Amino acid sequence: MSATQTSANFPLPPGEYGLPFLGETLNFFSDPQFAQKRHDQYGAVFKTRLLGQRTIFLRGSEANQFVLTHENQFFQVSWPPSTKMLLGKLSLALQTGDIHQQRRKLLAQAFMPRALTGYIPAMVDITQRYGQRWQSQENLTWYPELRNYTLDVACKLLTGLDQGSQTPLGQFFEVWCEGLFSIPFPFPWTRFGRAKVNRDRLLQEVEKIILQRQSDDTVGNDTLGLLIQAEDETGNRLSLEELKDQVLLLLFAGHETLTSAIASFCLLMGQHPQILEKVRDEQQAFLDQPMTLDTLKQMTYLDQVLREVLRLVPPVGGGFRTVLEPCEFNGYQIPKGWNLLYQIGSTHQDQQLYPDPERFDPDRFSPAQVAERAKYGYIPFGGGIRECIGKEFARLEMKIFAAHLARHYDWMLLPDQNLDLVTIPTPHPRDGLKVKFKPRPAQP
Prior knowledge:
Layout: E1 2-3, H1 25-30, H2 34-42, E2 45-50, E3 53-58, H3 61-68, E4 75-78, H4 81-87, H5 97-108, H6 113-137, E5 139-141, H7 142-159, H8 168-178, H9 191-215, H10 223-229, H11 240-253, H12 256-271, H13 273-283, H14 293-297, H15 300-312, E6 318-323, E7 327-329, E8 332-334, E9 339-343, H16 345-348, H17 367-372, H18 391-408, E10 409-413, E11 421-422, E12 428-429, E13 434-439
């Protein structure tokens, strides 16, 4: 595994390019098993063509380590064209090199333990409110409700906006999300075309919030307040245009992937009631304690369950990179200028790392088993210098949500629904996760 002057002496990976220009793009977007089928056919490395770009897929912990530890040396972050255009050029997700590191330090201030502690009361309050709402509905299609829940949490903690899912910002945001991973045809009737129009509307709403906040005597201690005040080593602050793009990115990261994660938790607990009972047994020790970072840290079995949820159904399937320098991996050349996709989902299904990988088994994350696992064999939040900046925010929200529901509610999956996962933009049950939701009997 190296960059070498003689990398061209190695063969290209096996695989097919597919149709002219489009290649296998349509299959990639429509078939959740796209990569798995080709890995079964070709092995851990294969080539294809996506959106006009020759692309190499890599799978496994060694591949992940190779890619994630050579950022800006052999590889540079890349995104599908639709995602780049809709996130905005100032977004942290698109920045590279020194500017990425500088901006990352600024944004990281919003996810330090002190900031996270300040987020807990609002997370608890919104979770309680939604639990009562779902209880009153009894039979519901849960996934759209979970999207509203995470958007309300994200809007409140990132911008100070109450019940964001019911505002124009929330409506624009949903349409924008639908186009993030799409074929970038900018016609009004396409997902991308609608998303592009709604990005402009969304940024207008975000700008109003920022300008209002900047004119107040106190900017507040939510994420936006921290970002408005954040300074780098030379005293520079984020400009209005950059604040807008970063807020948009954080709303996406704090909503889309989190909705997928908690929907997967709800689905898997519905399918494995015996594991939910073990979660409830652990919660008995914490019923009289306030939700704090320390209390949540002590919920070790719940932590194992949530880690296994993210292994089995990672919200992000992998990450694109552009090849900066020709290199070699596993006996195959990786040519300069090609795209590369390192894979999270396929790695989490590696039978050598996870025997019987389709089985839901939280004991995989017991301390003994974790100690033996390859470092890059479990990467639900990515890794290296581009690891998800909000991962502790995500863990916090997932844990508060899961603990509250396990303590106070029962839910049962309703019959006659399709629970297969749609993977674009993030994994979720095809029929929206239909459940019967009710309060738990009072515990003696």
